[in-house]
Specification:
about 500 residues; alpha/beta; two-stranded antiparallel ribbon; 16 helices; about 15% strand; globular; disordered N terminus; binds beta-D-glucopyranose
C-alpha cells in the first residue's frame, strides 16, 4: 500500500496537484523535559518544578502522578543529533519544534541580573553550548527550528510546587490564594524573570532561530495546575490545587509573561516571528456549556495576547478597565495544538463565584489503564482515553484564523502503542486542515506532529506512546513505527493519500 502510494505520488504532474504549499513547514514537536533524560548517565535536570513534582512521594502515593521516573526516558540530551537525522531523513521534516529548559540553563536564581549579558554570566555554560549545538545540528540538516521558551516547566528557584500545595491545604476554591514564596505562575516575579530569560535566549540563539514560541499551552498550565477537583476533574500538574482565583491569576500572569517575552525577543531581532501556542479542545454537547467552555479554554488567553482583553471575572464581557495595551498585539502567529473532543454537560449553576462562565462539566478523557473508573469511550478513543474527533479541528482552525494572524499547527497526534490508528488519525486531521486552508478559514503555514519519539507524558509518565519512534530504555535505540512512512510520503510530496 505504502509503495503504491509512493509510486503514484511520484508520477508527473504531481507538483500541480499539491495539497499543501511548497513552503509549508512539516515537522514533529518535542519538549525538553519530556525527552532529554535517559540512558546512562541519564543527564537528567533536577532543578525544575516538574522534577520535584513527578518524584514527590505524596503525589505518587495519591496516584496524582504515575511514579514513572523521567530519568528513564529516551535520552534526547545525548541522542539529539541522531534524532534530528531521523526527523529529516525518515520523516522528511523541514522544520523541528523543540524547547529549551530554563532550569538547565539557569539552575540557580538569577535575581538581580537584568540584561542578557548579566544573565549570561550566570548561565550553565555547558547547557548553553549544548542547545547551541542542537540548533546548529537541526539547521545543518536543512530544518528550520521553532523554539519554545516555556514548555510547562519552571525552575525550582521560582516554583516550589510542594510548598504551594501545602499552603493551599484547607483553602476553598473561591477563597483568596495564600501568599507563598516561590509561587510559580502565581508570582509576578516569575513573569519578570521570564521576560529576562526570553531576552537572554533571543540574544544567545537569535542568529539560529527566527520562529519562537513564548509559552506552550498556558490554559493547560492554569487548568491542570489550579483546577483539580479530586475524583471528578483533575490533570494534576504542579502545584495540583483547586482554586479559581489562583487559576485566574495564573492566566493573567501567563498573558503578561507572553507579552514580555514577545517584546524581549523582538528587541533582539525585529524580524523574528513570535507567538504563543494554544491547546484547543473541540467542545460539544450542551450548547451553552460548550460555548462557555470554548470561551474559557480556547479564547480567553488568545483574546489577551492578540486584543489585549483582560477579562478578569471571566464573564465574557470586556468592561472598562479590561483593555490593556501592554498585552495587546503580542503575537505574530497563533500556534494551535489540537488533540480531541470534549463532551460538555452544562450544570445549572456556576461552580465558582470567581469565574462566572465556569458552569459546565467537561469529559476530556475516557476509560484507559491509568483511568480505570472513567466512563467508557463513546466512539473511538486513543490509548490515553482521548476521543478522536477530526471534524472538530475545522471550527477551531476557523477560530484561530479569526484573529487575522498566520497559524501553525504546533501539535497534533495520539497515544497509540500498536500504531494501528496513527496513520489514519494524521491523514484525517490533515484532510480537515487542507479543507480549512482551501476555504480560507486560516492562513496555515505549517504542521508539527506530536511526537518524534515516545516521551514522558507529564502526570501519566511513560505509559502513553505518542511517538513515530519507540525506544529501548536501556540502549536508547530508536525503532520506527510504520506510520512514520506514511507521514514521510505526505511531507515529501505535500499531498495526502487517497485523492479527494
Ligand atoms: C503538550 C505535550 C503533551 C501532549 C500530549 C500537549 O498538551 O504540549 O507536552 O505531551 O499534549 O498529551
Amino acid at each position: 500500500m505504502v509503495l503504491s502510494l509512493v509510486l503514484a505520488l511520484a508520477a508527473p504532474g504531481v507538483a500541480a496537484a499539491r495539497d499543501f504549499p511548497e513552503d509549508f513547514l512539516w515537522g514533529t514537536a518535542i519538549a525538553a523535559f519530556q525527552t532529554e533524560a535517559g540512558g546512562r548517565p541519564a543527564n537528567a535536570d533536577t532543578h525544575s518544578d516538574w522534577w520535584a513534582w513527578s518524584h514527590d512521594p505524596a503525589n505518587i502515593a495519591n496516584g496524582h502522578v504515575s511514579g514513572d521516573r523521567v530519568e528513564r526516558g529516551p535520552g534526547h540530551w545525548r541522542r539529539y543529533r541522531a534524532d534530528a537525522r531521523l526527523a529529516r531523513r525518515r520523516l522528511g521534516a523541514n522544520a523541528f519544534r523543540l524547547s529549551i529548559e530554563w532550569s538547565r540553563l539557569f539552575p540557580r536564581s538569577t535575581h538581580g541580573a537584568r540584561t542578557p549579558r548579566q544573565l549570561d554570566r550566570l548561565v550553565d555554560r555547558a547547557a548553553a553550548r549544548h542547545y547551541e549545538a542542537e540548533l546548529r545540528a537541526i539547521r545543518g540538516l536543512g530544518m528550520r527550528p521553532m523554539l519554545t521558551l516555556n514548555h510547562f516547566t519552571l525552575p525550582t528557584w521560582l516554583h516550589d510546587p510542594i510548598a504551594v500545595r501545602a499552603a493551599f491545604a484547607g483553602v476553598g476554591p473561591d477563597d483568596p490564594p495564600p501568599a507563598v514564596a516561590r509561587g510559580g505562575w502565581l508570582d509576578e516575579r516569575t513573569v519578570t524573570e521570564f521576560g529576562r530569560f526570553a531576552a537572554w535566549a533571543a540574544w544567545r540563539y537569535g542568529h539560529l532561530v527566527d520562529l519562537w514560541v513564548t509559552i506552550n499551552e498556558p490554559m493547560v498550565v492554569a487548568v491542570n495546575g489550579y483546577v483539580n477537583v479530586a475524583g471528578a476533574f483533575a490533570g494534576w500538574f504542579p502545584p495540583g490545587v483547586y482554586s479559581f482565583p489562583a487559576a485566574v491569576r495564573a492566566v493573567r500572569n501567563l498573558a503578561k509573561a507572553n507579552a514580555l517575552a514577545y517584546d524581549a525577543v523582538h528587541r533582539q531581532d525585529r524580524r523574528a516571528r513570535v507567538g504563543p501556542v494554544q491547546n484547543m479542545i473541540a467542545f460539544t454537547g450542551d450548547r451553552r456549556g460548550a460555548e462557555h467552555a470554548d470561551y474559557v479554554f480556547n479564547r480567553v488567553f488568545l483574546n489577551a495576547a492578540v486584543k489585549g482583553w483582560d477579562d478578569k471575572d471571566v464573564d465574557g464581557r470586556i468592561e472598562a478597565g479590561e483593555r490593556r495595551r501592554d498585552l495587546r498585539g503580542r503575537a505574530d502567529f497563533i500556534g494551535v495544538n489540537y488533540y480531541f473532543r470534549s463532551r460538555v454537560i452544562g450544570p445549572p449553576a456556576p461552580a465558582s463565584s470567581t469565574v462566572a462562565l465556569f458552569d459546565f462539566l467537561p469529559t476530556n478523557t475516557y476509560r484507559h489503564p491509568l483511568n480505570p473508573t472513567g466512563p467508557p469511550c463513546p466512539t473511538v478513543c486513543t490509548d490515553f482515553g482521548a476521543e478522536v474527533y477530526p471534524q472538530g479541528f475545522r471550527g477551531l482552525l476557523r477560530r484561530a484564523g479569526s484573529y487575522g494572524l498566520p497559524v501553525y499547527v504546533t501539535e497534533n497526534g495520539l497515544a497509540d502503542a500498536d500504531d494501528d490508528m496513527r496513520a489514519e488519525y494524521l491523514v484525517d486531521h490533515l484532510r480537515v486542515l487542507r479543507g480549512a486552508m482551501r476555504d480560507g478559514l486560516a492562513r496555515v503555514k505549517g504542521y508539527f506532529a506530536w511526537s518524534l519519539m515516545d516521551n514522558f507524558e507529564w502526570a501519566a509518565g511513560y505509559y502513553p506512546k505518542f511517538g513515530f519512534f519507540s525506544y529501548d530504555p536501556r540502549t536508547l535505540a530508536r525503532h520506527e513505527r510504520a506510520s512514520a512512512r506514511i507521514f514521510h510520503t505526505i511531507t515529501r510530496f505535500g499531498r495526502l493519500p487517497g485523492g479527494q
